[in-house]
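sry for the spam today, last one i promise. C-alpha coordinates for design, 460 residues
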Protein backbone atom coordinates (compact mmCIF):
# COMPACT_ATOMS: atom_id res chain seq x y z
CA UNK A 1 0.00 0.00 0.00
CA UNK A 2 1.38 3.39 -1.01
CA UNK A 3 -0.51 6.51 0.07
CA UNK A 4 -0.20 9.95 1.57
CA UNK A 5 -1.63 11.24 4.84
CA UNK A 6 -4.60 13.00 3.24
CA UNK A 7 -5.67 9.88 1.33
CA UNK A 8 -5.68 11.73 -1.99
CA UNK A 9 -3.96 10.37 -5.08
CA UNK A 10 -3.65 7.10 -3.19
CA UNK A 11 -2.14 3.96 -4.67
CA UNK A 12 -3.22 0.60 -3.29
CA UNK A 13 -1.39 -2.55 -4.32
CA UNK A 14 -2.50 -6.06 -3.31
CA UNK A 15 -0.32 -9.07 -4.06
CA UNK A 16 -1.87 -12.47 -4.60
CA UNK A 17 -0.69 -15.51 -2.61
CA UNK A 18 0.80 -13.29 0.08
CA UNK A 19 0.59 -13.53 3.86
CA UNK A 20 1.75 -11.30 6.70
CA UNK A 21 5.16 -12.96 6.79
CA UNK A 22 5.69 -12.22 3.10
CA UNK A 23 6.54 -8.65 4.05
CA UNK A 24 8.66 -9.30 7.16
CA UNK A 25 12.41 -8.89 7.19
CA UNK A 26 12.91 -12.23 8.99
CA UNK A 27 11.12 -14.17 6.26
CA UNK A 28 13.00 -12.24 3.59
CA UNK A 29 16.27 -13.46 5.12
CA UNK A 30 14.91 -16.99 5.44
CA UNK A 31 13.92 -16.88 1.77
CA UNK A 32 17.61 -16.94 0.81
CA UNK A 33 18.14 -20.36 2.36
CA UNK A 34 16.19 -23.62 2.08
CA UNK A 35 12.94 -23.15 3.95
CA UNK A 36 10.88 -26.32 4.12
CA UNK A 37 7.46 -24.98 4.94
CA UNK A 38 5.41 -21.91 5.70
CA UNK A 39 2.07 -22.53 7.41
CA UNK A 40 2.62 -26.26 6.74
CA UNK A 41 2.91 -25.97 2.93
CA UNK A 42 5.93 -25.64 0.63
CA UNK A 43 7.03 -22.03 0.27
CA UNK A 44 7.12 -22.41 -3.51
CA UNK A 45 3.66 -23.94 -3.58
CA UNK A 46 1.05 -21.64 -2.11
CA UNK A 47 2.70 -18.44 -0.93
CA UNK A 48 4.55 -15.68 -2.73
CA UNK A 49 8.28 -15.84 -1.86
CA UNK A 50 9.35 -12.82 0.22
CA UNK A 51 12.15 -11.95 -2.22
CA UNK A 52 9.63 -11.65 -5.07
CA UNK A 53 7.28 -9.55 -2.93
CA UNK A 54 10.18 -7.25 -2.02
CA UNK A 55 11.10 -6.89 -5.70
CA UNK A 56 7.55 -5.83 -6.60
CA UNK A 57 7.10 -3.41 -3.72
CA UNK A 58 10.49 -1.81 -4.43
CA UNK A 59 9.51 -1.34 -8.08
CA UNK A 60 6.26 0.40 -7.14
CA UNK A 61 7.94 2.60 -4.52
CA UNK A 62 10.62 3.66 -6.99
CA UNK A 63 8.00 4.44 -9.62
CA UNK A 64 6.02 6.50 -7.09
CA UNK A 65 9.00 8.64 -6.06
CA UNK A 66 10.29 9.02 -9.60
CA UNK A 67 6.90 10.27 -10.79
CA UNK A 68 6.19 12.73 -7.99
CA UNK A 69 9.71 13.87 -7.06
CA UNK A 70 11.66 13.64 -10.30
CA UNK A 71 8.95 13.89 -12.93
CA UNK A 72 10.01 10.59 -14.51
CA UNK A 73 7.11 8.27 -15.30
CA UNK A 74 7.52 4.63 -16.30
CA UNK A 75 3.70 4.24 -16.11
CA UNK A 76 3.89 1.41 -13.59
CA UNK A 77 1.36 3.31 -11.47
CA UNK A 78 -1.13 3.28 -14.33
CA UNK A 79 -2.22 -0.23 -13.40
CA UNK A 80 -1.10 -3.86 -13.01
CA UNK A 81 1.39 -4.68 -15.82
CA UNK A 82 2.20 -8.09 -17.32
CA UNK A 83 5.63 -7.82 -15.68
CA UNK A 84 4.07 -8.38 -12.26
CA UNK A 85 1.15 -10.82 -12.62
CA UNK A 86 1.10 -11.20 -8.82
CA UNK A 87 -0.51 -7.73 -8.54
CA UNK A 88 -4.09 -8.82 -7.97
CA UNK A 89 -5.70 -5.49 -7.12
CA UNK A 90 -4.65 -1.96 -7.88
CA UNK A 91 -6.32 1.36 -7.15
CA UNK A 92 -4.80 4.57 -8.44
CA UNK A 93 -7.20 7.10 -6.94
CA UNK A 94 -8.57 7.68 -3.46
CA UNK A 95 -11.75 5.78 -2.72
CA UNK A 96 -12.91 6.07 0.85
CA UNK A 97 -15.55 3.48 1.54
CA UNK A 98 -18.85 4.07 3.24
CA UNK A 99 -19.24 0.53 4.51
CA UNK A 100 -17.32 -1.19 7.32
CA UNK A 101 -14.15 -3.04 6.32
CA UNK A 102 -11.50 -5.23 7.95
CA UNK A 103 -12.74 -6.21 11.43
CA UNK A 104 -9.85 -6.96 13.80
CA UNK A 105 -11.90 -7.89 16.85
CA UNK A 106 -14.64 -10.19 17.99
CA UNK A 107 -18.31 -9.44 18.56
CA UNK A 108 -20.45 -8.61 21.58
CA UNK A 109 -24.07 -9.69 21.90
CA UNK A 110 -26.26 -6.92 23.23
CA UNK A 111 -29.32 -7.19 25.41
CA UNK A 112 -31.45 -6.88 22.27
CA UNK A 113 -30.02 -10.12 20.86
CA UNK A 114 -28.09 -8.33 18.11
CA UNK A 115 -24.32 -8.40 17.80
CA UNK A 116 -22.06 -5.35 17.89
CA UNK A 117 -18.53 -5.01 16.57
CA UNK A 118 -15.86 -2.71 15.16
CA UNK A 119 -13.92 -2.51 11.92
CA UNK A 120 -10.45 -1.02 11.62
CA UNK A 121 -11.22 0.62 8.27
CA UNK A 122 -14.26 1.74 6.33
CA UNK A 123 -16.98 4.10 7.38
CA UNK A 124 -17.59 7.56 5.97
CA UNK A 125 -13.97 8.65 6.48
CA UNK A 126 -12.30 5.29 5.94
CA UNK A 127 -10.99 5.33 9.52
CA UNK A 128 -13.11 2.59 11.03
CA UNK A 129 -16.61 1.99 12.30
CA UNK A 130 -18.91 0.47 14.89
CA UNK A 131 -21.63 -1.75 13.46
CA UNK A 132 -24.66 -3.76 14.52
CA UNK A 133 -25.64 -7.04 12.90
CA UNK A 134 -28.69 -9.21 13.43
CA UNK A 135 -28.50 -13.00 13.59
CA UNK A 136 -29.81 -13.16 10.03
CA UNK A 137 -27.17 -10.79 8.67
CA UNK A 138 -28.82 -7.35 8.56
CA UNK A 139 -25.96 -4.85 8.97
CA UNK A 140 -26.24 -1.28 10.29
CA UNK A 141 -23.32 1.14 10.62
CA UNK A 142 -23.71 3.00 13.91
CA UNK A 143 -20.51 5.08 14.05
CA UNK A 144 -17.95 6.22 11.49
CA UNK A 145 -14.74 7.39 13.10
CA UNK A 146 -13.29 10.63 11.75
CA UNK A 147 -9.92 10.97 13.48
CA UNK A 148 -10.54 13.48 16.24
CA UNK A 149 -13.11 11.13 17.78
CA UNK A 150 -10.79 8.16 17.24
CA UNK A 151 -9.64 5.98 14.38
CA UNK A 152 -8.88 2.36 13.60
CA UNK A 153 -10.53 0.48 16.49
CA UNK A 154 -8.90 -2.91 17.03
CA UNK A 155 -10.81 -4.24 20.05
CA UNK A 156 -14.21 -5.64 20.89
CA UNK A 157 -16.80 -3.58 22.70
CA UNK A 158 -17.79 -3.94 26.35
CA UNK A 159 -21.37 -3.52 27.54
CA UNK A 160 -21.49 -1.36 30.64
CA UNK A 161 -23.86 -1.75 33.54
CA UNK A 162 -25.64 1.39 32.36
CA UNK A 163 -26.60 -0.32 29.09
CA UNK A 164 -24.15 1.69 26.99
CA UNK A 165 -21.21 0.28 25.05
CA UNK A 166 -17.60 1.15 25.82
CA UNK A 167 -14.57 0.68 23.63
CA UNK A 168 -11.20 1.93 22.43
CA UNK A 169 -9.64 3.13 19.21
CA UNK A 170 -5.98 2.34 18.60
CA UNK A 171 -5.34 5.71 16.96
CA UNK A 172 -6.92 9.13 16.63
CA UNK A 173 -8.13 11.48 19.31
CA UNK A 174 -7.30 15.11 20.06
CA UNK A 175 -3.87 14.57 21.63
CA UNK A 176 -1.65 13.49 18.76
CA UNK A 177 -3.15 10.29 17.32
CA UNK A 178 -2.50 8.15 20.40
CA UNK A 179 -5.96 6.60 20.61
CA UNK A 180 -9.16 7.04 22.59
CA UNK A 181 -11.69 5.50 24.95
CA UNK A 182 -15.31 6.05 23.96
CA UNK A 183 -18.86 5.46 25.11
CA UNK A 184 -21.63 4.65 22.64
CA UNK A 185 -25.36 4.48 23.30
CA UNK A 186 -27.33 1.58 21.75
CA UNK A 187 -28.54 3.90 18.98
CA UNK A 188 -25.00 4.97 18.03
CA UNK A 189 -24.44 8.30 19.83
CA UNK A 190 -20.70 8.46 20.52
CA UNK A 191 -18.91 10.31 23.31
CA UNK A 192 -15.11 10.42 23.49
CA UNK A 193 -14.20 9.92 27.13
CA UNK A 194 -10.39 9.90 26.88
CA UNK A 195 -7.89 11.04 24.26
CA UNK A 196 -4.53 9.51 25.12
CA UNK A 197 -1.51 11.79 24.98
CA UNK A 198 1.49 9.41 25.18
CA UNK A 199 2.50 10.18 28.77
CA UNK A 200 -0.74 8.59 30.03
CA UNK A 201 -0.65 5.79 27.47
CA UNK A 202 -0.65 5.34 23.72
CA UNK A 203 -2.42 3.01 21.29
CA UNK A 204 -4.94 0.90 23.21
CA UNK A 205 -5.33 -2.24 21.11
CA UNK A 206 -7.24 -3.97 23.90
CA UNK A 207 -10.83 -3.56 24.95
CA UNK A 208 -12.03 -2.64 28.41
CA UNK A 209 -13.30 -4.66 31.34
CA UNK A 210 -15.72 -3.24 33.90
CA UNK A 211 -14.90 -4.44 37.37
CA UNK A 212 -17.39 -5.70 39.90
CA UNK A 213 -17.29 -2.28 41.57
CA UNK A 214 -17.98 -0.38 38.33
CA UNK A 215 -14.56 0.96 37.31
CA UNK A 216 -13.20 0.20 33.85
CA UNK A 217 -9.70 -1.22 33.39
CA UNK A 218 -7.60 -1.39 30.24
CA UNK A 219 -4.13 -1.38 28.70
CA UNK A 220 -2.10 0.46 26.06
CA UNK A 221 0.71 -1.11 24.05
CA UNK A 222 2.99 1.92 24.32
CA UNK A 223 3.25 5.28 26.05
CA UNK A 224 3.45 5.87 29.77
CA UNK A 225 6.52 6.98 31.68
CA UNK A 226 8.86 4.68 29.73
CA UNK A 227 7.04 4.44 26.40
CA UNK A 228 6.49 0.67 26.85
CA UNK A 229 2.80 0.55 27.65
CA UNK A 230 0.46 1.06 30.59
CA UNK A 231 -2.32 -0.43 32.66
CA UNK A 232 -5.02 2.12 33.49
CA UNK A 233 -8.36 2.47 35.20
CA UNK A 234 -11.18 4.82 34.26
CA UNK A 235 -14.44 5.92 35.81
CA UNK A 236 -17.61 5.63 33.69
CA UNK A 237 -17.40 9.39 33.14
CA UNK A 238 -13.88 9.22 31.71
CA UNK A 239 -11.60 10.13 34.61
CA UNK A 240 -8.41 8.20 33.83
CA UNK A 241 -5.63 7.11 36.18
CA UNK A 242 -2.47 5.29 35.11
CA UNK A 243 -1.93 2.33 37.44
CA UNK A 244 1.39 1.11 36.01
CA UNK A 245 3.87 2.31 33.41
CA UNK A 246 5.36 -0.93 32.14
CA UNK A 247 9.07 -1.74 32.01
CA UNK A 248 11.06 -4.56 30.46
CA UNK A 249 11.25 -6.37 33.79
CA UNK A 250 7.46 -6.26 34.18
CA UNK A 251 6.69 -7.00 30.53
CA UNK A 252 5.68 -4.65 27.74
CA UNK A 253 3.10 -4.14 24.99
CA UNK A 254 -0.10 -5.78 26.33
CA UNK A 255 -2.43 -6.40 23.38
CA UNK A 256 -5.58 -7.82 24.95
CA UNK A 257 -8.09 -7.04 27.65
CA UNK A 258 -7.61 -7.87 31.29
CA UNK A 259 -9.64 -10.53 33.09
CA UNK A 260 -10.95 -10.15 36.63
CA UNK A 261 -10.14 -13.04 38.92
CA UNK A 262 -12.26 -14.40 41.74
CA UNK A 263 -9.79 -12.77 44.13
CA UNK A 264 -10.71 -9.28 42.88
CA UNK A 265 -7.39 -8.79 41.11
CA UNK A 266 -6.88 -8.48 37.36
CA UNK A 267 -4.85 -10.74 35.11
CA UNK A 268 -3.32 -10.12 31.71
CA UNK A 269 -0.46 -10.85 29.34
CA UNK A 270 2.41 -8.84 27.93
CA UNK A 271 3.65 -9.68 24.44
CA UNK A 272 7.33 -8.90 24.98
CA UNK A 273 10.11 -8.66 27.58
CA UNK A 274 9.98 -10.18 31.13
CA UNK A 275 12.99 -12.39 30.51
CA UNK A 276 16.01 -12.72 28.27
CA UNK A 277 14.00 -14.37 25.51
CA UNK A 278 11.76 -11.29 25.24
CA UNK A 279 8.86 -13.73 25.06
CA UNK A 280 6.34 -11.86 27.21
CA UNK A 281 4.53 -13.11 30.28
CA UNK A 282 1.45 -13.33 32.47
CA UNK A 283 0.87 -10.75 35.20
CA UNK A 284 -1.49 -9.96 38.06
CA UNK A 285 -2.35 -6.43 39.07
CA UNK A 286 -4.30 -5.29 42.10
CA UNK A 287 -7.01 -2.60 41.78
CA UNK A 288 -4.56 -0.07 43.23
CA UNK A 289 -1.78 -0.93 40.79
CA UNK A 290 0.58 -3.43 42.41
CA UNK A 291 1.83 -5.60 39.54
CA UNK A 292 3.34 -9.08 39.91
CA UNK A 293 4.78 -11.14 37.07
CA UNK A 294 3.48 -14.68 37.40
CA UNK A 295 5.05 -16.52 34.46
CA UNK A 296 7.38 -15.87 31.53
CA UNK A 297 7.50 -17.34 28.03
CA UNK A 298 10.80 -18.53 26.64
CA UNK A 299 9.97 -20.15 23.30
CA UNK A 300 9.31 -23.83 23.83
CA UNK A 301 6.50 -23.00 26.30
CA UNK A 302 5.16 -20.25 24.03
CA UNK A 303 6.26 -16.84 22.88
CA UNK A 304 4.64 -13.42 22.49
CA UNK A 305 1.10 -13.86 23.84
CA UNK A 306 -1.28 -11.27 22.44
CA UNK A 307 -4.44 -12.58 24.08
CA UNK A 308 -5.88 -12.61 27.58
CA UNK A 309 -6.82 -15.45 29.91
CA UNK A 310 -10.01 -17.40 30.54
CA UNK A 311 -10.82 -19.42 33.66
CA UNK A 312 -12.33 -22.88 33.61
CA UNK A 313 -14.38 -24.65 36.25
CA UNK A 314 -11.27 -26.67 37.17
CA UNK A 315 -9.71 -23.51 38.65
CA UNK A 316 -7.03 -23.25 35.99
CA UNK A 317 -6.68 -20.43 33.47
CA UNK A 318 -6.06 -20.94 29.76
CA UNK A 319 -4.48 -18.78 27.09
CA UNK A 320 -2.70 -18.68 23.75
CA UNK A 321 0.60 -17.44 22.34
CA UNK A 322 1.27 -16.04 18.90
CA UNK A 323 4.57 -17.88 18.38
CA UNK A 324 6.61 -20.48 20.19
CA UNK A 325 5.92 -24.12 20.88
CA UNK A 326 7.67 -26.36 18.39
CA UNK A 327 10.66 -24.13 17.63
CA UNK A 328 11.80 -26.31 14.76
CA UNK A 329 8.94 -24.85 12.71
CA UNK A 330 8.41 -21.43 11.14
CA UNK A 331 12.11 -20.62 10.72
CA UNK A 332 12.79 -21.23 14.41
CA UNK A 333 9.92 -19.13 15.77
CA UNK A 334 7.18 -21.74 16.14
CA UNK A 335 3.52 -21.42 15.20
CA UNK A 336 2.11 -20.69 18.65
CA UNK A 337 0.58 -22.59 21.54
CA UNK A 338 -2.38 -23.08 23.83
CA UNK A 339 -1.34 -23.22 27.48
CA UNK A 340 -2.79 -23.89 30.92
CA UNK A 341 -1.74 -22.06 34.07
CA UNK A 342 -2.50 -23.49 37.50
CA UNK A 343 -3.48 -21.33 40.50
CA UNK A 344 0.18 -21.61 41.58
CA UNK A 345 1.22 -20.21 38.17
CA UNK A 346 2.74 -23.36 36.71
CA UNK A 347 2.52 -23.37 32.89
CA UNK A 348 1.74 -26.44 30.80
CA UNK A 349 1.74 -26.37 26.99
CA UNK A 350 -1.38 -28.21 25.82
CA UNK A 351 -1.09 -27.61 22.06
CA UNK A 352 1.82 -26.61 19.83
CA UNK A 353 0.44 -25.54 16.50
CA UNK A 354 2.08 -27.00 13.41
CA UNK A 355 0.61 -24.94 10.59
CA UNK A 356 -1.49 -27.83 9.35
CA UNK A 357 -3.77 -27.53 12.40
CA UNK A 358 -3.53 -23.73 12.52
CA UNK A 359 -0.96 -21.10 13.38
CA UNK A 360 -0.64 -17.84 15.28
CA UNK A 361 -3.38 -17.25 17.84
CA UNK A 362 -3.97 -13.56 18.39
CA UNK A 363 -7.18 -13.92 20.40
CA UNK A 364 -8.19 -15.49 23.66
CA UNK A 365 -10.20 -18.63 24.20
CA UNK A 366 -13.91 -18.92 24.86
CA UNK A 367 -15.20 -21.31 27.49
CA UNK A 368 -18.27 -22.83 25.87
CA UNK A 369 -21.42 -23.84 27.68
CA UNK A 370 -20.42 -27.47 26.97
CA UNK A 371 -17.22 -27.08 29.01
CA UNK A 372 -14.91 -27.12 25.99
CA UNK A 373 -12.62 -24.28 24.97
CA UNK A 374 -13.07 -22.63 21.56
CA UNK A 375 -10.64 -20.45 19.67
CA UNK A 376 -9.33 -19.28 16.32
CA UNK A 377 -5.94 -19.17 14.63
CA UNK A 378 -5.05 -16.32 12.30
CA UNK A 379 -3.26 -18.57 9.80
CA UNK A 380 -2.66 -22.12 8.79
CA UNK A 381 -5.13 -24.94 8.41
CA UNK A 382 -5.93 -26.81 5.21
CA UNK A 383 -7.13 -23.64 3.50
CA UNK A 384 -4.23 -21.44 4.60
CA UNK A 385 -6.52 -18.74 6.01
CA UNK A 386 -6.78 -19.78 9.64
CA UNK A 387 -9.06 -22.04 11.62
CA UNK A 388 -11.74 -22.35 14.27
CA UNK A 389 -10.96 -25.07 16.80
CA UNK A 390 -12.42 -26.81 19.83
CA UNK A 391 -10.22 -28.09 22.63
CA UNK A 392 -10.79 -30.07 25.79
CA UNK A 393 -9.19 -28.94 29.05
CA UNK A 394 -6.71 -31.79 28.57
CA UNK A 395 -5.55 -30.37 25.22
CA UNK A 396 -7.34 -32.61 22.68
CA UNK A 397 -7.84 -30.31 19.69
CA UNK A 398 -10.42 -30.61 16.92
CA UNK A 399 -10.40 -28.30 13.89
CA UNK A 400 -13.99 -27.23 13.18
CA UNK A 401 -13.48 -24.76 10.30
CA UNK A 402 -10.62 -24.11 7.88
CA UNK A 403 -10.76 -20.68 6.24
CA UNK A 404 -9.70 -20.50 2.61
CA UNK A 405 -10.16 -16.82 1.67
CA UNK A 406 -13.44 -17.50 -0.15
CA UNK A 407 -15.17 -18.11 3.20
CA UNK A 408 -12.99 -15.63 5.09
CA UNK A 409 -9.36 -15.35 6.16
CA UNK A 410 -7.32 -14.33 9.20
CA UNK A 411 -9.71 -14.36 12.16
CA UNK A 412 -8.18 -12.16 14.86
CA UNK A 413 -10.95 -11.71 17.43
CA UNK A 414 -12.28 -14.14 20.01
CA UNK A 415 -15.46 -16.09 19.41
CA UNK A 416 -18.66 -15.36 21.28
CA UNK A 417 -21.37 -17.91 22.05
CA UNK A 418 -24.78 -16.54 21.17
CA UNK A 419 -27.97 -17.00 23.14
CA UNK A 420 -29.09 -19.38 20.36
CA UNK A 421 -26.20 -21.78 21.09
CA UNK A 422 -24.27 -20.91 17.93
CA UNK A 423 -20.85 -19.25 17.82
CA UNK A 424 -20.19 -15.92 16.15
CA UNK A 425 -16.98 -14.28 14.98
CA UNK A 426 -15.19 -12.24 12.34
CA UNK A 427 -12.37 -12.59 9.84
CA UNK A 428 -10.18 -9.62 8.98
CA UNK A 429 -9.77 -10.53 5.33
CA UNK A 430 -11.36 -12.70 2.68
CA UNK A 431 -14.94 -13.33 1.77
CA UNK A 432 -16.52 -12.32 -1.56
CA UNK A 433 -15.82 -8.63 -0.87
CA UNK A 434 -12.21 -9.17 0.19
CA UNK A 435 -12.50 -7.02 3.32
CA UNK A 436 -13.50 -9.58 5.92
CA UNK A 437 -16.61 -11.33 7.14
CA UNK A 438 -18.96 -11.90 10.04
CA UNK A 439 -19.80 -15.57 10.45
CA UNK A 440 -22.02 -17.89 12.43
CA UNK A 441 -20.87 -21.41 13.31
CA UNK A 442 -22.88 -24.25 14.79
CA UNK A 443 -21.33 -26.33 17.60
CA UNK A 444 -20.65 -29.02 14.98
CA UNK A 445 -18.61 -26.59 12.85
CA UNK A 446 -21.09 -25.72 10.11
CA UNK A 447 -20.13 -22.24 8.92
CA UNK A 448 -22.54 -19.61 7.63
CA UNK A 449 -21.35 -16.24 6.36
CA UNK A 450 -23.62 -13.48 7.63
CA UNK A 451 -21.84 -10.47 6.10
CA UNK A 452 -19.07 -10.06 3.54
CA UNK A 453 -17.43 -6.66 3.88
CA UNK A 454 -15.94 -4.65 1.03
CA UNK A 455 -16.28 -4.41 -2.71
CA UNK A 456 -12.74 -5.54 -3.60
CA UNK A 457 -11.81 -1.91 -4.18
CA UNK A 458 -9.76 -0.90 -1.14
CA UNK A 459 -7.05 -3.01 0.45
CA UNK A 460 -5.34 -1.32 3.41
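last one done:
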Amino acid sequence: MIYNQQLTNAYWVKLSSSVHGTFGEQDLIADTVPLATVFGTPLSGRFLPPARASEIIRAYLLSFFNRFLKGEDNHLLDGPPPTYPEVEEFLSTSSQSSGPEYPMSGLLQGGDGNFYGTTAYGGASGLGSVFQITTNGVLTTLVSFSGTNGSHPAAALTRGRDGNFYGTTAFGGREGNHGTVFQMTPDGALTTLVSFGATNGSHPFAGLIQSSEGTFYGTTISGGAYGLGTVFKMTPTGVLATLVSLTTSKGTAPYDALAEGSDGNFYGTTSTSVNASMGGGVFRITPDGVLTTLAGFTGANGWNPSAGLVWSADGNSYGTTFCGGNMSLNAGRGFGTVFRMTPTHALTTLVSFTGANGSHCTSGLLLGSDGNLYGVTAGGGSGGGGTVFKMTSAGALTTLVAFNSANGACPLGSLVEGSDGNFYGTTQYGGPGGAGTVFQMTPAGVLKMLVAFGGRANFP
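Residues 12-91 form one domain. ok im logging off now
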